[in-house]
Amino acid sequence: MSGKEKRAQERIAELSAELKKKEGGGLAEYVKLKAAYADLEHGKQSAEEEIKILRKSVADLKNQASSRLKCEVESQKNLDDCKFQCHQWSLKLEEKNRECLASEVKLKDLTSSNNFVVYELNEYKKAADVLKERISQLEEDLKDIFETEKQAQQKIIHLCEELKKAGEDTKVWKEICEEMKKESEAYKCKRGDLCLNLEENKRKSGNYDVIYERETVVQQSITQFEETRILERENPDLIKTYTSGSDYLQSEVSHKDEENKDNSHMAVTGVSSVTMMCSTLINVESEKNIPIEIELDGIIDISDSEDELPPSERRFNRPLPGQRCDENWSSLKEDFPLSSTRKRKWVSATGSSEQGIEEDIIMKKFNAHKDENPKRLCSRIPNASFGGQHFEGETLDHLQTSGSLHEKVGNTFMGDTENVLEDVRSNGESENFGAHMVKGDLHLDDNQIKLIQGNQSNWKFVADMLSSFEEDPELSMKAVCALCRQQTLQEKSEQDPLGYNAKRGFGAFYVIRGTEIAAFLMDGDQEDGLKKSIEELNLWDLKALEECKMLARIHSNQLFTIYKAKEDPFFLPSSAN
After folding, report:
1. pTM, whole model, 2 decimals?
2. Coiled-coil intervals in this record (predicted)?
3. Do the beta carbons of residue 290 and residue 352 sit within 8 Å?
4. Looking at residue 91, what DSSP letter applies?
């Protein structure tokens, strides 16, 4: 109960007590009290109503307080959750910041690599332009070679025609020889008369010197005629063949009259030797299709001269009797130009100064073989006569001791070619061998090259290794494995400054693909050799084998260095394995 109810009850009790006391007090008081009582009752009812309202409000307040308490608890939980989430987001923000920094570093690396790639692309474009220029130059050189070959063929045809004409002139020369024999016999008869009448003619005409010169000419003619007859008996074939120089000799006969009649039989011998050289040239060129000069012993003469005399201006000069053998041989080569030789063309692969040195090495070795033969040959032609002069030594028929001259020339040519090729192969490596002779200078086919090289189990230079890659595709697979192992060593050396520092691995553009193929071929074990076959590689990827060949060709220099240094025991030629 509230305080108002208590006070109302107390008041009612007091009034009832007073009423009882004053019952006898008068009716007026009774009425007053009754009215007051009615007021009190009315106040009581109003108080009760207020109490009810207050109770309702208290209940509402309690409900609100409980609901607020629940909201406060829930808000506290939400606050804790928000704090936890805020902490997590802060951690994630830090991670994102770190990733952002890493991405910035990667972006810088990518920009630098992009700049490097752009630089390399520009370099490749420049190299491509240089290669285009070289290709155009090579095409022009090839055209020049074709033109020189055509000219050589035309000269060969011209020589054949000259030989036919010389065959027709044989009868004329035989008649001249018969006349010269008769005249020589007449000169023998007159020799005694000239000796007896020498002093008398001197006193009469005062021309003793002229007569003495004529007597000397007659003496030389007689001795030379005897030597010519000896040559005819020993080798009659020498008088039956003639060369294109007959026209010039006939012109000499018309200009010098009797003097040339005395000496023309010796010119026949010189013409015969020249004819032999011409026929040898034509036989060798027709069989091997080699437009070169062959000088009696299979020597290949490569001409660099741009100004060559026409056939009409060529002359058969005579060497002096007292000259040394080497001088006579040099004059012989100069005096008998048979045909124009093709110009030497060299193709440069890199354009560096090293390739000029390689060219000098090759030509020195080639000329070393070439210079050995003239002395040897000259010592075998001591008694050959050319146009009235005399070489000391044997006759030309000694050149044909075994087989024909044509066979001798061909054998010497092939032997010298093999020696030169072997010397060049043993002293040069293909990665720096930038100068090569254009195909057609030696005209050796693949079978002849294989015969010369033989079955070799070692790679002497990069070209041998590349040909082995073509013959045995499995070698290119081993090459990729070797490059991968060297790549691993290279990556280790970047951490160890005192370790392996040679650049033997893949190039920058082939690292990913090369490592992937090598991992499959070695089955993930880099310490072992090749574990997959060609069939398994084709099943894994059809393009992988061609990619192996491409990688082996691109990295041929590194692979050859690895092979020479014996850095990889699994990368060896097939026969060595």
Report:
1. 0.27
2. 5-64, 121-155
3. no
4. H
What are the backbone dihedrals phi and psi of residue 385, each rounded to the nearest 5 degrees, phi first? -115, 140
Cα torsion 127, 129, 134, 135 to 10°: value is 120
The Cα-based distances of 573 to 96, 473, 552 in angstroms read: 55, 12, 14
What size, in residues, is the chain?
577
User: What are the residues whose beta carbons fall under 8 Å from the beta carbon of 380, sequence distance 6 or more?
Assistant: 393, 394, 398, 399
DSSP assignment of 527-558 equals TS-----HHHHHHH-TTHHHHHHHHHHHTHHH
**Among candidates 332, 338, 358, 361, which has minimal Cα distance to 347?**
358
Sign of the C-alpha dihedral computed for residues 214, 220, 221 and 222 taken in this order: positive
Orientation angle between helical segments 27-168 and 3-21, nearest 10 degrees: 170
- Residue 80: helix, strand or coil by DSSP? helix
Map residue 411 onto helix, strand or coil.
Answer: helix
The single residue listed with the structure tokens 């033109």 is 147
Q: What per-residue string of b and e applies to 63-93 under the rule 16 or more CB within 10 Å gives b? A: eeeeeeeeeeeeeeeeeeeeeeeeeeeeeee
Distances (CA, A) of 458 to 372, 423, 504, 553, 573: 31, 16, 21, 18, 7
Helices (H) and strands (E) in the chain, counts: 17, 6
Site of tokens 């060297």: 486
| Each residue's pLDDT expressed in tens, for the chain with a length of 577 residues | 567 788 888 888 888 777 777 666 667 767 777 888 888 888 888 888 989 899 999 999 999 999 989 898 999 899 999 989 999 999 999 999 999 999 999 999 899 889 999 998 999 999 999 999 889 889 888 888 888 888 888 889 888 888 888 877 887 888 888 888 888 787 777 776 676 666 666 566 555 555 566 667 766 777 777 667 666 665 555 444 433 344 433 443 344 444 444 444 444 444 444 444 444 444 444 443 443 333 333 333 444 444 444 444 444 344 343 444 444 444 444 444 444 434 443 433 344 444 444 445 545 544 444 444 433 433 333 343 334 444 333 333 333 333 333 333 344 334 444 443 444 444 443 333 333 333 333 444 554 444 444 444 588 888 889 999 988 999 999 999 999 988 877 666 555 444 344 466 788 888 889 999 999 999 888 888 889 999 999 999 999 999 999 999 999 999 999 999 888 889 888 765 5
C-alpha distances (whole Å) from 198 to each of 114, 208, 212, 262 are 105, 7, 8, 21
Q: What is the DSSP string of 149-203?
A: HHHHHHHHHHHHHHHHHHHHTHHHHHHHHHHHHHHHHHHHHHHHHHHHTHHHHHH
